[in-house]
Amino acid sequence: MSSFTETGLVKKLFDLNQSQQSIQTLSLWLIHHRKHHSIIVKTWLKELQRAPSAKKLTFLYLANDVIQNSKKKGPEFGREYEHVLVKAFKNVAQSSPEPKTINSLNRILGIWCDRGVYEEPKIKEYSTALNGTETIPRVEVNGSDKKRKTESNAGESEAVKKPRANAAGTEKKAKSEVVEVNGKVETHITLSPHQPDGDPPEPEDLIKVILDLENSASSDAVVRERIASLKPEVSELAALDKLEDKEAAMKLAADVNDAIKILNDYNARLAVEMDDRKKLTTMLRDFLREQQELQQQAENRLVEYQNKLSKIKEVQKEVRNHMNNLPDLTSLPDVTGGLAPLPSAGDLFNAHHH
């Protein structure tokens, strides 16, 4: 998953289409970069206002997906969108949308009301911006006038389901719901929001993991020295034959218990370190892959602009050649020298009357 830049966001919004995959893919990318929620929503509104009328619905579908699927990650997007949705709905209403577009947006408002995504007064504001009336539309599912229902066995409050084992392995419970895409009613299966495998880490996250590993178990010289200085008797069964009395046996037992505690604690730390290093290896691999992709993009861009620069230089050269072939007006003879000045309009007027 690529790093966040405003330019990259604008391009992704430009490439956005009305397919479910396109909307969900971009939604996931935005949620992953939710710390940039403010600039994301501002850019979203700006690009929606520039978009052709036919594409504005897709922008609202994207906002709906982001708002609902980011709730468990944090309230940032819901709050940020809340302040711009009136402008967004007004912009759609003023773009002479088709009736089916209005119907689709009314469905979204009905869903938000049904699920409590926004308070009823806010929904009324959005409805007024879109329809000119505060009436909150009801959600029509498969031709029947009723609230949208999810087909999950659990309540709406459970956004993330616990994995369950089956013969095929572990799978996550999903919920299905009826939505409208491009004027057609479809049933979409939506898994709980998650960060997909292979996402490149943010640089600060990668740095943190690396710094944490500087204090890892394998770097703990003090504990390693304690383990190295353990008495040989605690790990040799032959030492039992040398025990002569109960006091010596109790002392050996205490030493063994201490050694077991030290080794158990250290082995647990080593296991955690091993997991952390595996995680770091994966993060580095994904980060490197992303940097290679960005490098390729930069190389392609460099070639593109080098070609553009060459063409501009060719134009510059032709302009200079053309300028050199044009006559120098300042070097031409003065053809007006010695001639009487032309009469003024007043002189002509007076001469006409005489």
List the helices and strands and how they pair.
Layout: H1 6-15, H2 20-32, H3 37-50, H4 53-69, H5 76-82, H6 85-93, H7 99-115, H8 120-131, E1 140-141, E2 144-145, E3 164-166, E4 169-171, E5 175-181, E6 184-190, H9 203-213, H10 221-228, H11 246-325, H12 345-353
Q: Can you walk through the features of this model?
A:
A hairpin with a 2-residue loop joins strand 3 (about 165) and strand 4 (about 170). This protein is mainly α. It starts with 5 loop residues before the first helix and ends with a helix. The strands form three sheets. A two-stranded antiparallel ribbon has the order 1-2. It has a two-stranded antiparallel ribbon with strand order 3-4. A two-stranded antiparallel ribbon has the order 5-6. It has two domains: about 5-130, Alpha Horseshoe (Serine Threonine Protein Phosphatase 5, Tetratricopeptide repeat), CATH 1.25.40.90; about 205-325. The model is unreliable at about 140-180 and about 185-195 (pLDDT under 50). The protein contains twelve helices and six strands. Helix 2 crosses helix 4, helix 4 (about 55-70) runs parallel beside helix 7 (about 100-115) and helix 9 (about 205-215) packs antiparallel against helix 11. The protein is elongated, with a radius of gyration of 36 Å. The chain has helices spanning about 5-15, 20-30, 35-50, 55-70, 75-80, 85-95, 100-115, 120-130, 205-215, 220-230, 245-325, 345-354; strands at about 140, 145, 165, 170, 175-180, 185-190. It comes from Anopheles christyi. Keywords: Coiled coil. This is CID domain-containing protein. InterPro entries: CID_dom (IPR006569), ENTH_VHS (IPR008942), RPRD1A/B_C (IPR032337). GO terms for molecular function: RNA polymerase II complex binding.
